[in-house]
Amino acid sequence: MGDRMRIFLMFGLLGFVAGIVANFTAKYVIPWFATLVFPAIGLEWALSGFAGAFLTVMLVTVWAYVTSPSEP
Q: Whole-prediction pTM value?
């Protein structure tokens, strides 16, 4: 039971950190990057997609390193 609770808490912590990163990205990084790179096009949806993909890959990577492999 302790391992399951630890995994739930770890995912909760990762979700909390992902929310902070998403909030910072939405408020500061995407508008800055959109005015710098895409001034005429304004592809904020593409930047949001890249940010989401990056966050997902980071979360899965952290999860893969935190959990131990199961023994056969």
A: 0.48
